[in-house]
Protein: Pantoate--beta-alanine ligase
Amino acid sequence: MANIVQVLHTVKEVREWHAAQRQANKTIGFVATMGALHSGHLNLVQQASCESGSVIVSIFVNPAQFAPHEDLDQYPRTLDADVAKLTEFAQTAAGQAFAVFAPSVSEMYPRGITTHRDQQKGTFVEVLGLSEMLEGGTRPHFFRGVATVVSRLFHITMPDKAFFGQKDVQQCCVLRAMVRDLHFPVELRIGATVRDPTDGLALSSRNVYLTEDQRKRAPAFYRGLCKAKALFESGVLDRDELVGAVIKEAATQDLEIEYISLSDPDTLEEVDSVTSSGAILSGAWRMGTTRLIDNMLIGFEF
Ligand SMILES: Nc1ncnc2c1ncn2[C@@H]1O[C@H](COP(=O)(O)OP(=O)(O)OP(=O)(O)O)[C@@H](O)[C@H]1O
Ligand SMILES: CC(C)(CO)[C@@H](O)C(=O)[O-]
Ligand code: BAL
Structure:
């Protein structure tokens, strides 16, 4: 019999689905997304389905993590195609139940939400100390929005395990701290970054914004990360040399670098050289109005 994906829109429907899974003694794996699903998302769904009896995927473009000048309105919204992709995937999974949680903005934010922080009302979650640097430097609103929506989604879906992608490496660090600080009974699992097999560009829903020329030039950042990793593997630990390798490769395609960082995997503070705990080499660059991010783990794995 074909495996269907139940599409749920309300908290009440998720609670009923959750109770039915528990009744059937299923563990629950959760994948949070903003939709426009690609193989990076499906890889997390695959991991969730290998490790859980039932899988719930949220599809919600979260206004709280966008600033007023960002792309909330343009962000791709493709719910029907997303459900079709998950339904196709569900046919390959044996025995698991799959659900999509696609709430309205008012279901997630009953007191309303605006991207203007000074006008927001309601309950927010902030992970201080890990949210201000790197991505938080350019997007000061961002991790407050992410931590708030993910904590709401955890309360709604009550999963045993939640799966996030290494592509958004700082998000993984922030959410790991949030789970620890707020004692969420959820195990976080991090999936490796899925890349275009031809040129290594990290898959991202925002890649659809790129022109043909920008798409051709974009993989230079990843090539730089690979060169830096090769230098590390040949014994180089120095920040300037590792960061320099990325800058040099990115320059070949005139990428407009916003930041490149070598940071401590726990504190995300900048380091001068890779230590025995390893380091995260990460950065962001702009191509026209599109902003992309990528990273490489140096000397450690999640
Ligand atoms: N290429 C990828 N490899 C692994 N995980 C990914 C990849 N892209 C996204 N994810 C993960 O999927 C989850 C949902 O991400 P999201 O819906 O924001 O997609 P996205 O492609 O990162 O979109 P955006 O372009 O907005 O950054 C996050 O945990 C994210 O880290
Ligand atoms: C975790 C998340 C779904 C929260 O909106 C988002 O930040 C993302 O897609 O990475
Ligand atoms: N994947 C992170 C979501 C965002 O950039 O808004």
Remarks:
- The beta strands are 5-8, 28-33, 54-59, 97-101, 161-165, 187-191, 256-263, 279-287, 290-298.
